[in-house]
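A reminder from the course coordinator: this example appears on the midterm review sheet, so study it carefully.

Given structure:
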């Protein structure tokens, strides 16, 4: 039986969950954490999303991973994958519930910039946020694997990125 991706109503607790976790991350990572940002759909007020808060951690260098991987693992983050090569992905689960996705990227890099620009655009353009939400709601029932769902959203995201900032935003 297929269990679709669950998109829920916006939760005003999401920013507070981000702030509490960012504080915990800053305390453990210290100067390794050059920048922490709440990204993804949970960072856009009013936007429906999966109930998983996305955090972007910007570091000076992705390699070696030890300066950030060891502290993250002490906080119970699980390293998942290097995908693409300019991004490291971790997740935090408690009692079988996924709470946070942590995207580690190079400070001042394209990955960092793209996600902040995309978030800020959705925050300041309600019509774009509404279109993105409609797209997600159309896709979600057709997927039970998060990676497949994320890949299915990519063409819409890339098109919006081109509208926002031209070809320099496209990977």
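Designed residues:
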């Amino acid at each position: 039986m297929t269990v679709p991706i669950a998109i829920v109503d916006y939760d005003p607790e999401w920013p507070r969950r981000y702030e509490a976790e960012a504080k915990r991350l800053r305390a453990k990572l210290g100067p390794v954490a050059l920048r922490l940002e709440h990204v993804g759909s949970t960072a856009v007020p009013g936007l429906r999303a999966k109930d998983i808060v996305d955090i972007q951690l910007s570091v000076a260098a992705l390699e070696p991973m030890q300066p950030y991987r060891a502290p993250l693992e002490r906080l119970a983050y699980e390293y998942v994958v290097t995908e693409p090569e300019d991004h490291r992905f971790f997740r935090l689960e408690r009692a079988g519930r996924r709470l946070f996705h942590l995207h580690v990227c190079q400070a001042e890099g394209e990955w960092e910039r793209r996600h902040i620009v995309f978030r800020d655009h959705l925050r300041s353009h309600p019509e774009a946020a509404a279109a993105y939400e409609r797209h997600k709601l159309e896709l979600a029932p057709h997927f039970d694997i998060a990676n497949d769902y994320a890949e299915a959203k990519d063409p819409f995201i890339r098109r919006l990125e081109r509208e926002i900032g031209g070809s320099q935003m496209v990977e």
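The mean pLDDT is 91. The domain at 13-165 is CATH 3.30.460.10 (Beta Polymerase; domain 2).
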